Amino acid sequence: MSAPTEIELKLALSKEALRRLDESRTLREATSGEPRRERIVTTYWDTPDRALAQRGLSLRVRAQGETRRQTVKAQGGAGAVMRRGEWEWPIDGETPDLALAAETPVGEFAGAEIVPTLTSDVTRTTRLLKVDGALIEADLDEGEIRAGTSRQPVRELELELREGAAGALYRLALALHAEIPFAIETESKAERGQRLLAGEPLRARKAEPQPLPPGVAGAEAFRRIVAEALGHMLVNAAAAKAGDDEGIHQLRIGVRRLRSALRLFAPALAEPAVKAFNRELQGWGRRIGEARDWSVFCAEQLPHIFARADKPGWGGLIRDAALAKRREAFDRAAELIGAPPFVALALSLGAWAEEAERQPRLLGDARLDQPIERLAPDLIERLARQVRKRRRKAEGGDPAALHALRKALKRLRYGLEFLDGVYDGPARAHKRITKLLKRLGDLNDAAAAARLAETLSAEAVELAPAVVAFAARRDFEWRNGVARIERLARKIPGF
């Protein structure tokens, strides 16, 4: 049984990118030996009720010429670079032998009925590449995934690490992207096939912070946190691009979490890099935020305000205009997400964070060598001081000061989540921070809604009476909201 680890980066290619790949100087100069081309047909197996897929597992039999290999894969943590459990065995037939998988997560299904569920049929061109002392297998797959009567084309380049540090995958991808723009694929073929089988669209995913192992150095903790946050951003970029409201929401959260990770570790990190990445992420967050604000305005603010107003019918006067604005904002966001700078930013940030494994001094100073348990209290206390400072300025309900308090509280909450398991922070404070953030978020949405309503009024004068009614109700709820926030803030211990 092979070592149960697979580390790879998947690149989704357009037809034009696929055509240009043979012209890539980066691939040509890094290739060692002659490329190998063969047809690979892979059949995925599951229980009739898809129990393996629901557990994040895949069981497959791959046919390459006369050879057959059985593989079990476990779902890896979200990230641009996927790290997944992988177990492989040569077998003689076309049907999986579950006895071989007894020591894997599939072992508990030893007595279950399994059936073929989907197939991938691709022509694979394999190259071995040498990059910065690392050995990388580059597999170019062209073909399709079949699930029942449904089909989905496959055009992707898989970069799998054979030897060396994972940062080499990012650096290779950056060099390729400079020649041939592509997207980062965040789903495996099995996951895409399962969606195809169920007829499900690509959906947004919430963040799933991974607890840090005790004793890990600060540099490695930063690498793990950025990898998880980057993966959360990328997986939701695809859903947002498809026009999913929750995808836009989670993508915005993903950008904020990455910025919060940078702010959390900022005292020990290289300042020029932190400033550069933070500036880029801030720009993306602002652009994505526009689409999110129109989404909340249409789906939540309009129905809520006018359902409680004296003349609820006035909401219809601005609904159609608002929906048109929402579509425009989503189209702009999709265009930005699909543009090369977005991919370049993700790859650059990932490449920098991965230097923790190879050259931690490129990340920052010697404090990153300390165990994260020793580093964490100072990092959290710095964020807490910022919250206390902004809370004092927010007394009285000034909108700008409340917004600054909300941002500081978010950074503190994300910091506590990132360091969960290695920092014994105040659990009661964390819960109350979350509750206070909900109140502050409601106020922020109300303020954004008023601004968007005024935009509509400025563009179409006939909407002015409806906007006046909207603003009157919003101002009443704002005053009540500020009073509730001040009561909640006084209950947070230490803040």
**Which structural class matches the secondary elements?**
alpha+beta
N- to C-terminal distance:
53 Å
Estimated radius of gyration = 25 Å
CATH class of the largest domain: Mainly Alpha
Tally of structural domains: 2
The major sheet is characterized as: 10 strands, antiparallel
Task: Output mean pLDDT.
Answer: 86
Please state the second-level CATH architecture of the largest domain: Alpha solenoid
Beta content: 15-25%
CATH superfamily membership of the largest domain: CHAD domain
Structural summary, described in words:
The protein has helices spanning 15-20, 25-30, 51-54, 167-179, 189-198, 218-241, 245-265, 271-307, 315-337, 340-353, 355-358, 372-394, 399-418, 427-459, 464-489; strands spanning 6-12, 31-46, 57-64, 67-74, 81-84, 86-91, 115-131, 134-147, 150-163, 183-185. The chain is built from 15 helices and ten strands. Strand 3 and strand 4 form a beta hairpin. Strands 1, 2, 3, 4, 5, 6, 7, 8, 9 and 10 form a ten-stranded antiparallel beta sheet that branches. Helices cover 53% and strands 20% of the residues. The chain has 495 residues and is of the alpha+beta class. The mean pLDDT is 86. It starts with 5 loop residues before the first strand and ends in a 6-residue tail after the last helix. It has two domains: 6-200, Hypothetical Protein Pfu-838710-001 (Beta Barrel), CATH 2.40.320; 245-489, CHAD domain (Alpha solenoid), CATH 1.40.20. The longest helix is centred in the middle third of the chain and has 37 residues, at 271-307. The chain is globular.
